[in-house]
Amino acid sequence: MLRPVQALPVKVDVFEGPLDLLLHLIEDNEIDIYDIPIARITGQYLAYLRAMEELDLEIASEFLVMAATLMEIKTRMLLPKTVTVGEEAGEADPRKELVDMLLEYKRLKQAAGELKRLAEDRSKRVFRVAASPVLGQERQLDLGDIRLFDLATRFKMILSKAKPVISEIARESFSVRQKMRYILRQVSGLAKAGALTFTRLVSSAISRREVVVTFLALLELARRRRVRVEQEGLFGEVRIYAAGAAPEATGTEG
Predict the structure, then answer these.
(1) Taking CA 212 as the corner, what is the angle to CA 208 and CA 213, rounded to the nearest 5 degrees?
(2) pTM of the full predicted structure?
(3) How do residues 172-221 score in pLDDT, each as one tens digit?
(4) From the CA atom positions of the chain, what is the Rg in Å?
């Protein structure tokens, strides 16, 4: 049962068009949109237009066009159906086009409502502004539609095909005995009573191990009294002399 027009609140400003007004009437009266009682809806629709006139509101032409459409549909539905022999019984429902328009409008209205809700929800959030990238510092790499999983798969495939790199590391071939002979040669080459610093002795060493072996060789030579070693204070330079050289009358090499 349709609600009396007089009991309905007239808020024409909320209707965005004739379809909006029709949809309001259908939903407010809980009418099946696929079986619209066109005579009643037309009466409701015209009552709204009259109310708008009484309120001295300007009625847009589209509302009048819809009123004419409703009256045409109402008239077509009241006309008796004539079926001649050979014709298919039953005429297309004159309400079908109107129902299609209402359904499409309803979908758009729902979508608009959802977008409005999302916009209101977003307006309540505060986003931190990201720092602007420094131009020229980093290059942007456009990967297109490539996903991270695709990159990982390709990288794994390349690794499986890559040949292992085999390199040979030369073994350090020196010993304490060799370094002892080397130190003796260096010391014997000095001028009489001259000194060789330990810093110069290991200046050509290629590894820490060679420095350690050289130092052990120096200690062994000192223990055997083949050389004489002196140091000027803690962390001072270590000077190496040939056995029997007098440090007071010597100069320093290096």
Answers:
(1) 115
(2) 0.41
(3) 778 999 999 999 998 888 877 688 888 888 888 888 888 899 999 999 99
(4) 52
